[in-house]
């Protein structure tokens, strides 16, 4: 664990010294470059890792730096997918962890705050990409002008289906449903366009919904779509998303799985198109552990671990029948996926083999990749040539998962025995009780936070019902007195007025009583008021 901590600071300090405010460090030349949009990306990506390592003072400093220095009103073409997982995800996670990090939060947190506003601003810049006939987004958007007129309509499956974790969190915290709505629409469009044998391809035209690349598998171009069906289902307690994944899982097992490896197949016929393992697929055992399929997860993990031991890292592509790398795909850019799976599986099984993988990863990365100015991408695992790049996910994911593998008492692993009670404008709220959902860039989202800011509509209805009832009684009272003086009657009018206000209340109540599986029914508004002073309605 201490070696992992030292790795983090070797990379982080050199980024600050040599590359900030650029997106990424170039470790061979000790300078920086913008890669994904000029957001000081490594700083945003590393922010929650700082807190996981226990560095609250640097977390607080970086929060201030980001508030002052990051601007999304820039004429830059940005990847919709990457901006979401790295920037929106990183800011949301840091926002939800900021109180724990000793940041002085504003009134109304976690339903308000500067990092939340930044996350919302970044996400709004991505919304124009979703304005397509299918609801599936373009892959690239200009942050100032929206989608460029000549933009290609071909997007990869993961670039369409990897929004629900961040966008649903945003909607729940801000009260604006637009983010969750577009994310769900995109997910469902992919589901609707799966093949007859239940598989999805790699790239699709978002205007016509025609599949352009018809290779089906669990790796690059598809991977985080499956991941977000599971994580979205857990985060939102959504049975529909989980049942979609379980259907896909059956088709994946039927058509792509051979001897605990997963191959690439033609999405309509199921015939093998590429007998290749991609390093990005190494997230799959971790995902299987989340649905409780530990035996299959362990067997596949051990296959992938044999490849790691063969090369001291996972090549981007590995030819399974030949047992060797694929030409021009021999590199290892310090990806986290196998370590991520080890972390999940170790939490579930405590199998020491998983710690061995962690140790091997530390040894390999230090021995092959460490240079004076940080850690460099390995261009070729056969001869250990290096490339002049350190991706921001190295600090966001690789180091974080390694550290969490070796730190069983970290607050991230909280089992619910420890928690904070926060008072929000919408009532009391439980936070930091564990059960964190990592987005696909390893930014942890506290699922309990989604229930902190949701009562506003319910309570608004309560107030409306009370007011309606109060004013209808006053109005009816005047009306009844008038009728009584005119005709000497009035009972039937009173009855109909009561039933109309009751039926309005019932409609509201039918909406209000659909509570999420995770939330307790909120105390009714009038009983809260009754604590301060009894509410009297004049029924006489």
TrEMBL record:
One GO biological process term: response to unfolded protein
Compartments where located: Endoplasmic reticulum
Keywords: Calcium, Endoplasmic reticulum, Glycoprotein, Glycosidase, Hydrolase, Metal-binding, Unfolded protein response
GO cellular component: endoplasmic reticulum quality control compartment; membrane
Keyword Glycoprotein: yes
Region feature Disordered, mapped onto this chain: 485-521
Feature: compositional bias, Polar residues: 491-503
Biological role stated in the UniProt entry: Involved in the endoplasmic reticulum-associated degradation (ERAD) pathway that targets misfolded glycoproteins for degradation in an N-glycan-dependent manner. May initiate ERAD by promoting the first mannose trimming step of ERAD substrates, from Man9GlcNAc2 to Man8GlcNAc2. Seems to recognize and bind to exposed hydrophobic regions in target proteins.
UniProt name for this protein: alpha-1,2-Mannosidase
């Amino acid at each position: 664990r201490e070696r992992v901590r030292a790795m983090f600071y070797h990379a982080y300090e050199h980024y600050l010294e040599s590359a900030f405010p650029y997106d990424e460090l170039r470790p061979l030349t000790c300078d920086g470059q913008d890669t994904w949009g000029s957001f000081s990306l490594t700083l945003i990506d590393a922010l929650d890792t700082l807190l996981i390592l226990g560095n609250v003072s640097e977390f607080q400093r970086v929060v201030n730096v980001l508030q002052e220095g990051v601007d999304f009103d820039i004429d830059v073409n940005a990847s919709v997918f990457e901006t979401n997982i790295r920037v929106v995800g990183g800011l949301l996670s840091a926002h939800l962890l900021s109180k724990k990090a000793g940041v002085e939060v504003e009134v109304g947190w976690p339903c308000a705050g500067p990092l939340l506003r930044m996350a919302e601003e970044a996400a709004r810049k991505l919304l124009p990409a979703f304005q397509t006939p299918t609801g599936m987004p373009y892959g690239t958007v200009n942050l100032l002008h929206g989608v460029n007129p000549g933009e290609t309509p071909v997007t990869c499956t993961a670039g369409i289906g990897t929004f629900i974790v961040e966008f649903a969190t945003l909607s729940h915290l801000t009260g604006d449903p637009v983010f969750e709505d577009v994310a769900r629409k995109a997910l469902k469009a992919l589901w609707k366009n799966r093949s007859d044998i239940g598989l999805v391809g790699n790239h699709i035209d978002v205007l016509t919904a025609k599949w352009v690349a018809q290779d089906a598998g669990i790796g690059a171009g598809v991977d985080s779509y499956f991941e977000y069906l599971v994580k979205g289902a857990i985060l939102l307690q959504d049975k529909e998303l989980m049942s979609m994944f379980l259907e896909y899982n059956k088709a994946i097992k039927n058509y792509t799985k051979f001897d605990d490896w997963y191959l690439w197949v033609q999405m309509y016929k199921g015939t093998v198109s590429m007998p290749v393992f991609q390093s990005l697929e190494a997230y799959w055992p971790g995902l299987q552990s989340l649905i409780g399929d530990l035996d299959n997860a362990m067997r596949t993990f051990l296959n992938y671990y044999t490849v790691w031991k063969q090369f001291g890292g996972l090549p981007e592509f590995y030819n399974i029948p030949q047992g060797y790398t694929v030409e021009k795909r021999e590199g290892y850019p310090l990806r986290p996926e196998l370590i991520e799976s080890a972390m999940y599986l170790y939490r579930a099984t405590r199998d020491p083999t998983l710690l061995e993988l962690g140790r091997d990863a530390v040894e390999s990365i230090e021995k092959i990749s460490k240079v004076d100015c940080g850690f460099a991408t390995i261009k070729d695992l056969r001869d250990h040539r290096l490339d002049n790049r350190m991706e921001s996910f190295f600090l966001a994911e690789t180091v974080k998962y390694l550290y969490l593998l070796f730190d069983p008492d970290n607050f991230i692993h909280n089992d619910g025995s420890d928690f904070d009670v926060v008072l929000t404008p919408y009532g009391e709220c439980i936070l930091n009780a564990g059960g964190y959902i990592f987005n696909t860039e390893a930014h942890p989202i506290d699922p309990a936070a989604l229930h902190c800011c949701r009562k506003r509509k319910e309570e608004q209805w309560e107030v409306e019902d009370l007011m309606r009832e109060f004013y209808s009684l006053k109005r009816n009272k005047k009306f009844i007195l008038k009728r009584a003086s005119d005709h000497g009657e009035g009972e039937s009018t009173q009855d109909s007025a009561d039933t109309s206000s009751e039926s309005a209340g019932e409609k509201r109540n039918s909406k209000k009583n659909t509570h999420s599986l995770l939330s307790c029914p909120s105390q009714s508004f009038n009983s809260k008021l009754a604590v301060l002073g009894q509410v009297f309605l004049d029924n006489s």
